TrEMBL record:
It comes from Roseococcus suduntuyensis. GO terms for molecular function: hydrolase activity. This is Arylsulfatase A-like enzyme. Gene3D superfamilies: Alkaline Phosphatase, subunit A (3.40.720.10).
Amino acid sequence: MKRCLMVALDGLRPDMVNATNTPHLAALAARGTRFANARSVFPSETRVATPSLITGCRPGGHGMVANTLFDASVAPDRLLRTKLVEDVLAMAAGGETPLQRPSLGERLARQGKTFALVSAGTAGAARLLHPAAERLGSFRWNVEDTEGATAAEVRDALGATPPHATPNTARVEFAGRVLIEHVLPRHRPDVALIWLSEPDVAFHWAGLGSEATLAALRAADAVLGRIIAWRDAQPDAAEIGLIILSDHGHVTGHGKMSLREELCRAGFRAGTGMGTDVDVVVAPASAPGLWLRDAALAPQIADYLATQNWAGPLLARDPAILAAGRVLPLSLLGSAHARSADLVVTFAGDEEPDHWSLPGRAPFDAPDVPDGGGMHGGLHRAELATVLVMQGGAFGAGIVAEEPADLTDIVPTLLHGMGLAGEGMEGRALRAAYRAADDAPPLRETLEAPGNFVLEAMRAAEGGRLYPTALRRAG
């Protein structure tokens, strides 16, 4: 395999891939290798998932621990929002990137290969996906770019970028044109990644099964169809692999709330920055982080949350912050880092169908998402399940692989297929991508979690990494 095209459909649930919603993806999955047990990382958020994909490491390794987080050494009075380039660069503290592991672009450059990124997502996510673009002299373009040589290059070639809309269909379609009409013929990268912001945007604002959402999903699939057609028309089509992925799934938000306000009502001094009148900094999310002025507050907060029927188990950067049996360590999921919150709250979701008959609902804390909108970030089965399909090039045909996989395994698999080195990553090359005989079903286990919950999980081998599958109530 000499080249590879990666296509990310942000937030796509695998149970929504079918001949009606996604005809091109469904057909490609039947022709290639589909990973039935593909999962996200925790937290299952885009700017945690993108570094995990591009570095082949989980958050504890690369250091991007949440979409929204608190770091007193960077901004003591406010939360950092990683969708913003300025906050990503603030976290880098004068360096190129806050990521603490090399990216795919860097790995390819060391081996004489090139990488290009086309992104219809946020500018911060694009920076995390290709942080070394300027230093390497390679292509990185995002729909929010208005300044600089790359923005001018795209504008001169294809005209102005459409404005943001909900759904974000026009920008998704334009990003497809940037890749197919400009990047692939002009730059001819060895590996290219296009990040499509749909169906995630529509899921959040219109709900998982709305007509607007399904139209946005079909539009994203149509972009994929044009990419497949471009690949198939190339003289070296047999040497070009395709990897189609989603970074996380979605549940339907059911019971919107503000954890900060709930904590304040319970008598805690909670806020969004560590001011003189704040003891607990809260980052809203589907798995909100709590940064404590004093670790002695942890037992009090845990006692309060244990009385709330919407609260699931707590996770901690340092589990010694609470008595044994009261908290799960973030390290269990590969998510413990110096930037991690002292405590991470989970919400108690269920498997009940939403009003579109899609299973999975959960409370959430997101000020700008309506109740009933799609959400992700936690450990619900529907948040963790992802799409992963590999086809063409060195990849096998007509395989439904059972081996566990997550985002960190994708780049090692890509590099292996191209005959390139991939040392130093936590992920592993997925052998079933190339040969059905190398597939093996996962070793499944169930771990007890505080508060009468259980965590379903998988391993590829005895003693191997844990792949979380679902957090649910016991019984």
